[in-house]
Design a protein that fits this description.
heterodimer; A: Rossmann fold; Aminopeptidase; eight-stranded mixed beta sheet; about 35% helix; elongated; B: mainly alpha; 4 helices; globular
């Protein structure tokens, strides 16, 4: 795996970066040359985009809309606050780390202000826009089906969250209103790029943080001694894409879950335990023991909890690796608010 | 010392924000039912940490400490009382 840092979100300044001229001074602004192509290409690569601009929110959004670009920007921050605070708001809303953000602005002052608070943000001079698409940070190793529709999935999320905020009543009722379908299937060859991407991109909801290359995953997929499972989630607003991955090592009468991860986009959907309980059911039916490896970090406490609350008990610890075992009793039914579907043999 | 019944009542109110129309009994299983999900588990633990100013360590994260209202209140009481000694 390359350890090179990859950008997940590019944040645009507006005046003299996205367009020529100053909106607040009533200039007749026009889009900078080539900017639309840059935006569309980044979008196709699955890189999200947002805006951090010091302007009047309403006027600037109207202009962005006029240029037909409003759907490209998630959580645009157009206000008079320091740009560092806008960048922080964007990172928090999308739920990504500062080191996966890039910020493009024509003003050295603004770039310095952002870097002073957040040295990990990649700041780019708007004058260098021509070379932006060729930067290695802007070129993900693979472009997957999921990366192409990533922005749309985030837009669906914004819609869902707005509705969730307005929803009165128990959380469980809201989840039931989504009509969620969780599908578990054995990974196919075309799933491997997304699978590799998930191992690299997911930190919070990841039990071991093992990253596997495309070739390694392909070996697991075709090996008799392993099972590689993927999970997708859909609801009435659209698909969340492939959001889960599990790798199980089969060794005679012992199965070990080497990796279990869920995209943090489904964090609030209450589906984390479904994959575990599905595997528990299968292990029980197959009459094998079930273990799981876990490397606890300060970020994946929720996965530790998910294992523990799913009846896994610590049986061994070697260095950082905790080995859990499950006694396969008391396996709960799946939550009623989600329909679970799986391959006939899995 | 926090009265045991108060803990149960507070936790019950918390549970009802997530789970509709269900009055949990003291010894009724919460997490080994179909109602379990990991986010909810996390929220419950964070809620207890904040509400009772306790720190739930990894070794405390055992189903036996959280699976019933009785278990939760016993756990909180025990945690809250050892924390006091340290201060």
């Amino acid at each position: 795996m390359t350890s090179e840092k990859k950008i997940k979100c590019v944040v645009w300044d507006l005046d003299n970066t996205l367009w020529n001229g100053l909106l607040s001074e009533n200039d007749p602004v026009s889009l900078c040359e080539g900017v639309v192509e840059v935006i569309k290409t980044l979008d196709n690569r699955g890189i999200l985009q947002s805006v951090a601009s010091k302007n009047d929110h309403g006027t600037a959004m109207e202009k962005i809309h006029e240029f037909g670009l409003s759907d490209f920007f998630l959580y645009p921050q157009i206000n008079w606050n320091p740009k560092s605070s806008s960048i922080k708001a964007i990172a928090e809303s999308i739920n990504i780390g500062m080191d996966s953000l890039a910020f493009i602005d024509d003003q050295p002052y603004e770039r310095d202000e952002v870097n002073f608070s957040f040295p990990d943000v990649l700041c780019i001079d708007a004058a260098d826009m021509a070379g932006l698409l060729d930067m290695p940070e802007m070129n993900p190793r693979f472009i997957t089906q999921d990366s192409k529709i990533r922005r749309q999935m985030y837009l669906n999320d914004i819609k869902r969250n707005n509705i969730e905020e307005m929803f009165e009543g128990a959380k469980e009722d809201f989840l039931a209103s989504l009509g969620m379908v969780f599908r578990i299937s054995q990974a196919k060859e075309e799933d491997l790029r997304r699978a590799e991407e998930l191992t690299v991109r997911t930190h919070q909801l990841n039990t071991t943080g093992y990253t596997y290359s495309y070739d390694e995953l392909d070996r697991f997929r075709t090996s008799e001694d392993h099972i590689l499972l993927t999970a997708t989630l859909d609801d009435k607003y659209g698909t969340y894409g492939k959001i889960g991955l599990a790798l199980i090592e089969r060794n005679h009468n012992l199965w070990t879950i080497k990796l279990l991860l869920m995209s943090c986009r489904v964090l609030s959907r209450g589906v984390g335990a479904i994959m575990i309980n599905h595997i528990r059911n299968k292990a029980k039916k197959s009459n094998v023991r079930l273990c799981a490896e876990m490397i606890a970090t300060d970020r994946n406490r929720m996965m530790y909890m998910t294992y523990k609350f799913s009846g896994f008990k610590e049986v061994k610890k070697r260095k950082d690796v905790i080995v859990f075992e499950n006694d396969l009793t008391l396996i709960p039914d799946f939550p009623t608010y989600v329909h679970v579907d799986s391959d006939s043999n899995w | 010392m926090i009265p045991n019944n108060d803990i149960k009542k507070t936790v019950c109110t918390f549970l009802n924000r997530h789970i509709k129309n269900h009055e949990f009994q003291g010894d009724e299983a919460i997490f080994t039912s179909a109602l379990f999900n990991s986010l909810f588990a996390m929220q419950l633990v964070l809620f207890l940490e904040k509400e009772y100013r306790i720190k739930v360590e990894n070794e405390d994260l055992d189903l036996s400490n959280f699976n019933t209202l009785n278990a939760i209140s016993a756990f909180v009481e025990q945690k809250a009382s050892c924390d006091c000694h340290e201060h």
